[in-house]
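Morning. Coffee machine broken again, so started the prediction first thing and wrote up yesterday's gels while waiting. Chain of 147 residues, entered below exactly as on the submission form.
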Amino acid sequence: MSHSKSKIWVHAVFSTKDRQPIIQLAIQSTVHNELQTQLVDIGCFVDCIGGVADHVHLLLLLNPKKSIADVLKQIKGGSSHAFNQVKLTATHFAWQTGYGAFSVSESHVPRVRVYIQRQQEHHRKQTFLDEYTRFMDHYGLPNDDVG
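Came back before lunch.
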């Protein structure tokens, strides 16, 4: 029996510390580009990144040699360090502790991609906390508040 390389799609979401709305439109592409660079550097393919002022969504292929915990710890730490080095925001940049990470079947990748790409429009109607609660309910997980 031949074994193909494991291919795990992950939809990850995490917020800024205390859900502060510090990822303003003027710096959004800088934040997303840095996260993408960090992910590529550790061997994860990035399909798309989206989000609003207080959180980001990522759709990525997990490097089979890494755990999702290690990947997210590294990109959150590395990106916030990079942002603070160049004083990207007026205040200290920090991500909230923790994250949500959901595996995505290959057949659902296009739907998740569209969802992530439409974050601006989506959050005119729904807060991050409402969205998080909906995710937890959808995946049948206990809904401990993320912050």
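The two ends are 46 Å apart (CA to CA). Going to sketch it on the whiteboard this afternoon.
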